[in-house]
Amino acid sequence: MNVAVPLIGLDWGTSSLRAYLYDVDGNVVATRQHAWGIRHLPEGSFSAALRAITTGWPPCTILAAGMVGSRQGWHEVPYVKVPADVTTIAKGMVRNDACARHDMWIAPGLLQDSPANVMRGEETQIIGALSQQPEHRANVRFVLPGTHSKWATVSDGRIAAFDTIMTGEIYALLMKHSILGASVSVEEPQPVPNEAFLRGLHSAKESAAEGAFSRLFSSRALMLSNQLAVDDVPEFLSGLLIGEEFRIALVRDGGDNSVPLCLIGDLSLCHRYAIAATYFGYAPPTIIGDAAAQGLWQLAATAGLLAQATTYDFLGLDA
Amino acid sequence: MNVAVPLIGLDWGTSSLRAYLYDVDGNVVATRQHAWGIRHLPEGSFSAALRAITTGWPPCTILAAGMVGSRQGWHEVPYVKVPADVTTIAKGMVRNDACARHDMWIAPGLLQDSPANVMRGEETQIIGALSQQPEHRANVRFVLPGTHSKWATVSDGRIAAFDTIMTGEIYALLMKHSILGASVSVEEPQPVPNEAFLRGLHSAKESAAEGAFSRLFSSRALMLSNQLAVDDVPEFLSGLLIGEEFRIALVRDGGDNSVPLCLIGDLSLCHRYAIAATYFGYAPPTIIGDAAAQGLWQLAATAGLLAQATTYDFLGLDA
Predict the structure, then answer these.
(1) CATH architecture of A2-164+291-313
(2) What is the pTM of this model?
(3) Chain A neighbors of B179, CB-CB under 8 A
(4) Could you report the predicted ipTM of this complex, rounded to two decimals?
C-alpha cells in the first residue's frame, strides 16, 4: 500500500526518542521508540540514532522537539519567550545543518523571564493537546507531571506563563539516597495510590503557607513512632510532593480552583494527579496520554514544512 | 597530675563519636574525636569503638547521647515526649547492659506527637546551651543547622516543641545527584557566602506562601538564561534552602520575628544562618559552637550519676 508521507516527527528528550511518520492528513501511520535520549545515544551519535530509528522510512522533512535543541543537544535552538502560541513557536524553529541526510528542523523551547523558567518539549505537547481540545484554547491549566512537572497557563490560545516543580526528581532522590527511603523495601509507589497517598495529600494541604518542605521529615518521624508503616513511606511521600504542587498552584491563584485542568503524560501518574486535583477541590481534569505527535504536526503545518510528500510503500510492518 | 574524674560523656551520632572526660567541677579535661559514627564503627562493634576512644581513661561512669540510643544504635532508648526539660530527659535515661566494662547510660531522644517529629542528640546540645545561657531559659528559639536542621522552642526552661527541616540533606542531594548540580564544578558553598547566597535568600523570601520548593528549578533556568553564573548555583541554592527555613519559621509565628534566636553548630554554617536571620528581620543570633559536653554533664548531674569519681593520673597528653 502506497502512502504519501510529508513528515517525520521526533520527540527527542533526555531519556527517550520517539519517531512518528505521518500521512498527508496528519495521521500517524507508524511510530517507533527507543531509549536513545540525548544522554543515551547509540555510538554517542545523534545521526546514528536518527538513521537507526528511521531505517526504511523515506527521507522526508523532519521536525524534532525536546532536549535535542538544548545546549547538550544536537543543535542549540534559542528559546522563544512567553507568551507564545503555535505561530511564534513555529517561527523560532531552526534548521539543523548538522543533519546531512534530511531537511531537519528543531523546535524551540520556551523561556519565561520572571520567575525564570524554561521548558523544552512540553510546549509541543501543549500545542498538540490544544489542537485536540480546541475548547481549552480560551482558558486552561495544562499539567505535565514527571521528573520536572510543568504547570502552564493557556489563555486566548497562547501559553501565557508556566512553572516547573521538581516533583519527580525530588521523589526519586529522597527514595534512593535520603534517610527517608532508608528502611523502605519498596521503592516505587503502588500502581494504584492507597490511603497513605491520601495522608500525604492531606499533610501537604494542611501545611498551608508553611509548605510541604517543612513536612518531609515527618514521614520518618511517623514511621519511627509507629504511625506509618515503613512500606507506606513511598505512598506518603508521593502524596506529599504531588499535593505540594496543588498547594502551590492554589496559592498562586489566590485559592481559586475553578480553572479547568488538563493532564498530559503517563496515565498512571496522571491518575494520581487527578485524585490530588479532586482532593484540592478542582473539577476532575481531562487526561491526555500523549500529544507530542499532534504538536509536531501542528508546528510543521504552521511553519509550512508539509509542502512535499514522498510516496512510501507502507507494508503495515510499522503499525 | 592527679585529677578526680567522675564521668565520661559521649556524643555519638550517625557519622562521628566524641568523648569528653570531666573533672568534678564539670570542666572537660580531655576530648577525643573519631569518625566512628554508628554507621562507621571499627570492626562493626560499639564496644570496640568505646574501648578505643577511652583507651587509658579510667573506667568511670559513662553517659552517651545521640543516635547510639536509636533503633540502629547500641541500645534503643524510648523517646521522651515534649514538653521536656533536663529532669524529664534525665528520667528517661536507660542503662546500657550490653556494655560490660562501664556503668554506661544512654540519654533518650525527644518525640513530638503532632506534627510528628523526633530528635536524638540535639536535646543534649540544647540542655547544654541553656546551662551556658541561663537568660535564654524563659523564651528562645534554638536553631541547630545541619543535615536535618532542628528548630526548637524553649519556654520556661522546657523544650516545648520542635521542627525538622531536611536542609543539609536536600542540599547535598541536589548538588550531587540532581540536574541542578549537573554543570557545576564547585560542589561546596564558599567559606564566606557571596551575593548569590543573598539572591537565594531573597528568592525564598519573595516566594511567600508558595515556598522555596516552587523555586528550586529557577536556579537552572537562571543559569540557562545567563542570569546566574554556573558556579554560583551552590551559593544560590544554599541561600534558597536556608532562607526557606526562616520563611517557614515566620509563617509558624505569624510573621513575628521578635523571638531571640540561638544558633548551635558548625561555626561557618552558623554564620550563614546568622546572615539569613538578619535578612529575615531577626536580631543577630547568639552563636554557640558546640554544647554537647555541657549538656551531657547537666544530664548526668541531674540523674545523680556523679557520685563516684576515679583518680586519673592526667599527664596532659589529651589536652
Answers:
(1) 2-Layer Sandwich (3.30)
(2) 0.93
(3) 148, 166, 169
(4) 0.91
